[in-house]
Fold:
Amino acid sequence: MNNQPLLIYNTLSRQKELFRPLHEGRVGMYVCGPTVYGDAHLGHARPAITFDLLFRYLLHLGYKVRYVRNITDVGHLEHDADEGEDKIAKKARLEELEPMEVAQYYTNRFHEAMAALNCLPPSIEPHATGHIIEQQQLVQQILDNGYAYESNGSIYFDVEKYDHDHRYGILSGRSLENIKDASRELAGVGEKRNQADFALWKKAQPEHIMRWPSPWSDGFPGWHCECTAMGRKYLGEEFDIHGGGMDLVFPHHECEIAQAVASQGHPMVHYWMHNNMITIGGQKMGKSYNNFITLPEFFAGTHEKLTQAYAPMTIRFFILQAHYRSTVDFGNEALQAAEKGLARLMDGWKLLQRLQDGQKTKGAPQVEVQYVATLSQQCYDAMNDDLNSPQVISALFDACRVINTVNDKKASITSEVAQALRELFHTFAFDILGLTENAGTSNKAREEAFGHVVDMLLEQRSQAKAEKNWALSDKIRDDLAALGFEVKDTKDGYSWSLNV
Ligand code: ZN
Structure:
C-alpha cells in the first residue's frame, strides 16, 4: 500500500481535501453512466476517462476499489424527467424495435468505444430497469418520512419541506428562491405543489411503453432515483466518491443528495467530484445543443466538422492533456497537436526500450539515478494534487528529452538507470494515464482495415494473373485459403469471404 497523501477537489466543500476512505484500504466509487438511446459523444468520453484515471490511480496506490457506473436504460429527458415521451421508447417506436433492443444496441456500442479508449470496465454496471424495486423502495421511504406527496398517481419530492428541514441546493450553491425564480417562466405547475418539486415516480400515459406496476400507478421512476437506489444497493448507505460531469451538479446530483437525506436521514456521499465540459466554439457539446460529434464519428472521421479520423488514443491523450476541472475546447488543430504529442511520447518509449543495456558515450555526462527519483516524485505530486494529468504528461516529455539526449550520444545512461526510467514511464504512461502503444482502434475500424489488407493481396493476385504469373497468383489464393479465406473468381474480378 502506497501512502501517498491524495488531495481531491470536493464540489460540496468547494476545496481540495485529503482523501480518507471510509474503510481502510477500500474505496467505493459511483459514476453516472450513459443514457443508451444514441452513440456516446466526446462529452461522454471526458467523465469516462477522468474517472478511469482516478480508478487506475487508486488501484495503483493499492486500494481495493468497487467502481459502479450505471446504464440509464429508461430514456428520460436530459434535464427534466417530468414531461414528454421516453427517448428510448420513441426510438424503439420509430424503428419498430423492442425498447430493450435499442438500449442493448447502444450499450454494446458504448462498451466498444470505452474499450477503444482503454477505459477499464467498472466493477458493477447496474441498469436502471433492473432496479425498479429498489427505486420504488426509495420512493416509499421518502413518502413515509413525509418528504414526498402523491398527485394523480405520480409522486413528487417536496422540495420546500425538505429545504425547511435540511437545505436544498448545498451542492450547486443555489437557494430555493433562486431555483424558483429560474423555473418561473416554465409551463404551469400542473400536478406539482411547487415548480421546484421533482418527480420520484411518474404515472405513465396510455401510449408510454416502458412502465411498471407500483402501489401508486403503472408508471416509471424519476431519473434521479436510479443513482441513489443503485449507489446505496452496491456501495452502502455511505460511500466515498460520487462522480460525473459538471452538468449533472444541478439538478441531478442535488436531487440525489436530497433523496438520500430524505430517505435515510443522512447523506450518502463523502466526496463529490465533477469533470468540466468539452466545448465546441465555446459552447457546451451535448445532445441538447445538437452540436455533438460521436465517438464512432471521431474514430472514422465521418463528421463534417472533422478534417480527418482520430485514433481513440489521440482522443484519450487530448482529454488528459487538460486538467479535468478545466474546460477543453474541441478543434481539429488541437486534436492534431495531441496526435503529434502522443507520437512523440511513444517514440521516446520506443527509444527507451532500445537502451536496455544502457548506453555509454565517452566524455558525455551521466543520467543520474537521482534524476529518475525526482521525476517520479514530480509525477506522484502531480497525481496527488487532484489528478493533475497535464503535469504528469509534461514530466514524461522531460523523460523523452533526456532519452533523446542519450540517443544523440550527448549523455550516458547505465542499464540500472535506464531500467528505472522504463519502470517510471510504464507506470505513469500506461498503468495510470492508461495510454497504449497502439492507437487503440474500435472493432469496426479494425475490421475495415483488415478487409482492406485482404483486398490489397487480391489486387496483387489479379495483377499476377494479368502477368500470367500463375505461381504467385496460386500462392496468394492458397495462403489465404489456409487462413480460412475463400476466394472466388467472378466475372469482374473476385470476391472473398472468411469462414472461420
Ligand atoms: Zn446519476
About this structure: The pocket of zinc ion is lined by residues 32, 227, 252 (CB under 6 Å).
